[in-house]
Specification:
Elements lengths: L6 E14 L2 E7 L1 H6 L5 E5 L10 E4 L2 E3 L4 E7 L3 H6 L7 E8 L11 E7 L4 H12 L3 E8 L8 H8 L4 E4 L6 E2 L3 H10 L4 E5 L2 H13 L4 E4 L15 E4 L2 E4 L6 E3 L6
Parallel strand pairs: 8-9, 8-12, 9-10, 10-11, 12-13
Antiparallel strand pairs: 1-2, 1-7, 2-6, 3-4, 3-7, 5-6, 13-16, 14-15
Helix pairs in contact: 3-4, 5-6
Amino acid sequence: MEHNQLVCEDARVLANEGVGPRLFVVSLESPRIAARLQPGQFVHLQVPGMPDHILRRPFSVFDCDPQAGTLDILYQDLGYGSHRMTDLCAGDVASQIGPVGHGWQAPTGTERALLIGGGVGAAPLFLHAKALLAAGVAVDVVLGAATKAALATYDAYTALLGHAPVVATDDGSFGFSGFCTQPAADLLAAHAYDHVACCGPEPLMRIVAQMAADAQVECQVSMERRMACGVGACLSCVVDTTDGKRRACVDGPVFESSKVVW
């Protein structure tokens, strides 16, 4: 996939709603970026109202409508910047750079794919699922979360797939009781997949990468790193790979899991 030309755009906030415990979805009117964005790419957002923080923050794109010129970001209220985002209201404007990075790219001829999202890692897989389904690929989805209330993407995936995704919750409040690695392993044992994609906590991706390798299935992971510039200049987001150090922002965030040095 060739890198799209980066755009710096003032995005207008359309809505900013709570969707779970400390989970929010902000909808942005950003037509130039929405028209260029590929599944798995992200935006580098300048959170307004933070003059003492000059660095932008990277956010994966959950959903995108190029025709409407809009995109949705699922985020978690974890720190100063993300907490400030919860105050954004319709009509506010936020500067963002995008689309950034190398996204998902299933192998040519893929007929069946397994997508595994842990926590907010389910968000950057959603557009990938859309694209695969549009291409006629059979898609199975496994979602993992701490609790039922934290399954913020469950309804969206159910509507997209036409049936409920496989779910695991740490506390057993919904679906499989435990981590989503077990349902993923069960599906890998039951079906012949051509492609596995995973995003979530690094221990989850490391385990999925090994399971896919054992099953001899191609696998891609989206590596999250703290970023300063977000455009490949500062080298603050390096990922160790078998090809040397690579930048998560522009060489990733999606990498072949077999090339990541875990």
